Amino acid sequence: MDPARIVPDDQVWLAIKSECARAAEREPLLAGFLYATVLSQPDIEESLSYLLASKLDNSTLPALGVRDIILQVLNEDECIQRAILADLQAVVSRDPACPGYANPLLYFKGFQAIQAYRVAHHYWLQGRKPLAWYLQSRISEVFAVDIHPGARIGKGIMFDHA
Asked: Do the domain assignments include residue 104?
C-alpha cells in the first residue's frame, strides 16, 4: 500500500466502510457478505465480532453466543480497541500486497487470529480459563494459529502468511 494512503486511527473505520462500499459495487456477488460484515455495522468492534463469530462458531457454541463473548470484550477493553487499530496499521504499512484496511479485517487469517487471541487472553486474565482454552482451541482449528491464551503479545502485530 502506498504510504500516502495511511489514515489516522480515528479514520480507519471510515476507510474500511468506503473500501467495502466500492468493493460491493465492483463485485455484486460479495455485496451481501460486505453488507452483513461491515456496511451494516456501526463500528469496527461490531464488525470484527460478527466476522470472528461467523468463523469460530460450531455446534458447541453457535455464532450468536460466540459473538456475545467477543463483543463484550471488544466493547469494554480499550487496550484491545487500540491494539486492533495498531495491528491494522501494521499490516497496511508493512505488507506491500495489502491494498487497504478492509483486506486484513475481512481476509487475513493472521490478523483475525491475533484479534481472537486478544479476546481469549482477556478471559484468561479474568480467571475464566476454561473459556480462554476453548477459544484458543477454536482459533487453532480455524486459523491454524496456536497462541497460548496466557501469552502476552503487544500491539502493532502482523502475522504474514499465517
From this structure: yes
Query: Which positions of the chain have pLDDT values less than 70?
Result: 1-5, 162
| Distance, CA of 155 to CA of 138 (rounded, Å) | 22
What total number of domains does the chain contain?
Answer: 1
Q: What is the pLDDT of residue 4?
A: 56
pLDDT 10s digits, 51-87:
999 999 999 999 999 999 999 999 999 999 999 999 9
The per-residue pLDDT for 102 is 98
Question: 79 in a domain, yes or no?
Answer: yes
Which domain CATH number covers 99? Answer: 1.10.3130.10
* 3-class DSSP string for the chain: CCHHHCCCHHHHHHHHHHHHHHHHHHCHHHHHHHHHHHHCCCCHHHHHHHHHHHHHCCCCCCHHHHHHHHHHHHHHCHHHHHHHHHHHHHHHHHCCCCCCCHHHHHHCHHHHHHHHHHHHHHHHHCCCHHHHHHHHHHHHHHHCCCCCCCCCCCCCCCCCCC
Domain range for residue 116? 3-143
